[in-house]
Amino acid sequence: MAAQQTERDWVFDTRELVRRPGSMREVSRAVTTQEPMGTDVIAIPTDRPVQVELRLESVVEGILVTGSAQASAEGECVHCLDPVVEPLDVPFQELFVYPERAAHHQKVAGRAGGDKEAPADEDEQRMLDGDLMDLEEVIRDAVVTALPFQPACQDDCPGLCSECGVQLAKDPEHHHDVIDPRWSALAAMATPTADDEKRI
């Protein structure tokens, strides 16, 4: 993460807590999204508020953040294409370690593994940038995980008619007479032609 100069948007200041194990503070902030947060199917749109509630705790390794993000995601029903609004209240927890602690862990892991590369989870450790921590990626990951894989306007949405595309929920009696293709020749014979009408 590039060095941050001030607390802003998704960046939170931990100056009061750094190197003070046992201390804690709570933070509440509304942050506006700068780009969609979610998937191609459903997401929190750009310029929408995300309410972030945090508890920051100082521990020996760094700062442990526990919190939740509340927002509304928007998308389309995968069955009938009607708009879908999904209220979210997403919990998350993450440890932001002090840079020297992360370096120490990697060194110990390297020794234990015979100078092999550090495990993947070591590489994914989040570090404090000075006294600041950037929660955007943490919250984005939590939101994407919480969103429905296939959003639906209702659990039993019947979707669209495969023949003409009409919404079946609005016309429950809708149907088409489907003729087995093996009988199509007989159906044609049963349909009166112009010559037949002349004979009549």
Description:
This protein is of the alpha+beta class. The protein contains 5 helices and 9 strands. The strands form 2 sheets. Strands 2, 3, 4, 5, 6, 7 and 8 form a 7-stranded mixed β-sheet that branches. The N terminus is likely disordered.
What structural keywords apply?
two-stranded antiparallel ribbon; 9 strands; alpha+beta; disordered N terminus
How would the blueprint of this fold be written?
Elements: E1 11-13, E2 24-32, E3 37-38, E4 42-44, E5 49-58, E6 62-76, E7 83-97, H1 99-112, H2 120-123, E8 126-127, E9 132-134, H3 136-146, H4 184-190, H5 194-199
Parallel strand pairs: 7-8
Antiparallel strand pairs: 1-9, 2-5, 3-4, 4-6, 5-6, 6-7
* Strand residue percentage: 25-35%
Radius of gyration: 29 Å
Total strand segments: 9
Q: What spatial form do the alpha-carbon principal axes imply?
A: rod-shaped
Secondary structural class:
alpha+beta
Reported for the largest beta sheet, the result is:
7 strands, mixed
